[in-house]
Amino acid sequence: MKSSSKQGRTPLQGWTPLAAALALALGGAQGHARAAAMADQADEVSMPAISVFGDAISAGTAGRSYINSADIERQQADNVASLLDTLPGVDLAGTARPSGQSLNIWGFNKVQDVKVILDGVPKGFEKYRQGSIFIEPELIKQIEVNKGAHTSLYGNGGFGGVITVETKDAQDLLEGGEKVGAMLKYSRHSNNGENDATVAVYGRTEDGRYDAMAFTTQRKSDDLRKPDGKPFRFSAIDAPSSLAKLNIRLTPEQLLTLTAMQSGSAGWGPFAAMGEDVPTPTEAEIRKYGLDEAWQRKAVYRDQDDDTYAVKWQYAPQDNRWIKLTASVGYSHTEQHDKRLPSASLGSYLGSLGNESWASYVDRIAELRNESVLTTGAISHVLLMGLQWHKNVRDTLMYYPSSTALKDPSYNYGYFQPYYMPAGRQETTGLYLQDAMTYGDLTLTAALRHDRVVSGGVPNKAPRYNSALAAAGHDFSEKVHADWSPRLGLFWKASSSVALFGDVSRTWRAPTIDEMYSNEYYVSSKLGSSTPGTSRNLAVERVTAVRTGFMLHRQNVFMERDDVQLRLTAYQNRVSDNIGPRLGILIEGYVPGSGMLPPALSTQRNLAGFHTQGVELESYYNAPRLFASASLSKQRGTRTGSQRDPWGHDEPVSTIAPNKLMAGVGWRMPDFGASIGWQGRFVAKQDRVLPLGNVYRLPPSKGYALHTLFASWDGGQGIWHGTQLRLTVDNVFNRNYMPYLSEAVTGVGRNAKLSVSRKF
Questions:
Q1: Dist CA 630 CA 647 (whole Å)
Q2: CATH of 17-238+246-759, one of 1.10.630.10, 3.40.50.150, 2.40.170.20, 3.30.70.100
Q3: Neighbours of 666 (CB within 10 A)
Q4: What is the 3 state secondary structure string of 652-684?
């Protein structure tokens, strides 16, 4: 498939005729509509939807996409990023290795730019060169994606969007009037010999006041295989996960929910789980250490734990529309311990967390939110007010046993925080007010949020990274950032089936702990970096975000009881004062190598900004026996100046994903309790990349097409009641491909995934 950087082209230009024809052919299609919206469908198989952007046209669903439990079961994905990679504008960054994925939305790929909220608790892991999302897909009920910086519920970042993940509970598994139940599930993946086992028990009391669930799953596999049959080294999985949830209906108007989730993984992997393949050992290394140890010397043994706990209380009196109150508290703790073999080099890993490292990230959150419904004259209001407190604390340490460091007090004899991954804390207090005002078919939503962010670093244990000399600029003291974020949204329901929407938002984010408190070494004027200082004087990043589009939702279009949805979205994001490392031209007018630099120059700086823009087309179709979908996304981005020289020539934004077309079609066979289908992913080449030599350059990628087949069977009634079989085959033609955002790491070969589950 072909891609072009020329302006003024239509969304379908730059694609092969076959892909464009497929998009147009499915342009009126809709892959999902709720069974409840259709009459008399009790005898039909529930549809394995590909994606959905809402049950109906409303201001609450504009700009949002959803992945429900049927999508998750159909894909049988190993990680959340793979699930979301099927949506337009959302792309997986990283590799298929365990803990090696993060998300890219509309060109934003930093952890702070894509917020992930799990049952109300923020999940973010900023460890250097690691993935950021460790949520087991089997535990998930639904995922909502709100793309762009267009929500006031979460502050300080989220330029790319907010992803909210909701886990399952007993009510999702109990059927009809059941009070107690259990489920067993087994899955087998052919590519890596993966075996997954899931056990769940659940129930509710006779009066319905209490329901509870305990859910546990275990993934275990060998290494994945590439399309050429070679092993994808260090991609084996050993990952247990568990979920416990209790709902207590204190009164008919009050609900208390307690959630506990734990997951982990252990095994050998590359230091950079998101990036490159591990270098192949030499013949001499294999002779000296043996094959297994020769490979392991290139890697680390990583032990990871990820825990999440949440308590939520909801109070909604039936006779008082002014009160719909939610109070919640949450706790998240993610930690990794990496260790290299004793035979690994002892002085080669200063920039990759040494020979042993520890990283711990703790998030605590508390929130009080109230929704009021009221009327003033002919205008109805939905007034949302909230107060949030969020504290993130990170502890880091590494062991660097080089012969020099072990004897040098300026290295603290080998134990110190990585200078590029400092320890610290960041505490955010946010207050927001949002009013959705509806007059007839027009809804105007105005919102204002204020955030106060207090950050503090932890002085490094190694004096060379924590010098008291003024010329070093090593300052780990507290810094406060505070500002407002206004937002305005307009939604017009032009008819019962067509609506137009638009949003304008202006928001900001404070520098992260990494950005403010990373620093280079300084021992003396003769032994020190040219940019040794911490970066406490950074300005906040700001974005002005705009999105606009229209939605169409019609029923009974081509046949009785069918359902069509279509959405077109265009967007633009303008970022100013973006933060990046000080590279190349260190100050305006500086000549590299001249040595004419001011003392205590900071490691990070504010750059000249960039802008991204794009267009998305989503279409879905659902009928009693046929379902189909197609989505198309195109995006571009340009940086003012460059990361090495903010005063130089403009350059592309390196994190812009290639154009992507997703398409699918499926059939239901109610008489057999079965459904089958096909899904295709058509990705264009990406040749609009940074010039050679740029440290952030991703190599250009070729276009590729991947095909997936899926089938399911439901046992229906009788002896097979509660039994489900699912088969998904990814990369059917075993296509060799390298996703652009994977940094030229080869993708995964053909993989047949079979699962069988039984409810009791």
A1: 42
A2: 2.40.170.20
A3: 25
A4: ECCCCCCCEEEEEEEEEEHHHCEEEEEEEEEEC
Q: What is the pLDDT of residue 48?
A: 37
- Mean pLDDT, residues 598-616: 96
Cα angle 659, 663, 665; round to 5:
180
Residue 647: count of CB within 10 angstroms of its CB: 13
Q: Is the pTM of this model over 0.70?
A: yes
Domain spans, the chain: 17-238+246-759
Amino acid type, 413: Y
β-strand partners of 483: 451
* 138 phi and psi angles, rounded to 5 deg: -60, -25
* Among 495, 492, 486, 377, CA closest to 444: 492
SS3 string, 129-154, reads CCCCCCCCHHHEEEEEEEECCCCCCC
pLDDT digits over 680-739, tens only? Answer: 999 999 999 988 878 788 899 999 999 999 999 998 888 898 899 999 999 999 999 999
Tens of pLDDT, residues 358-401: 999 999 999 999 999 999 999 999 999 999 999 999 999 999 99
Q: Phi/psi of residue 288, each to 5°? A: -80, -40
- Cβ contacts of 683 within 8 Å, gap of 6 or more: 1, 658, 659, 660, 661, 703, 704, 705, 706, 737, 739, 740
Bridge partners (DSSP) listed for residue 331 = 309, 364
Q: How far is residue 276's CA from residue 294's CA, in Å, rounded to a whole number? A: 18
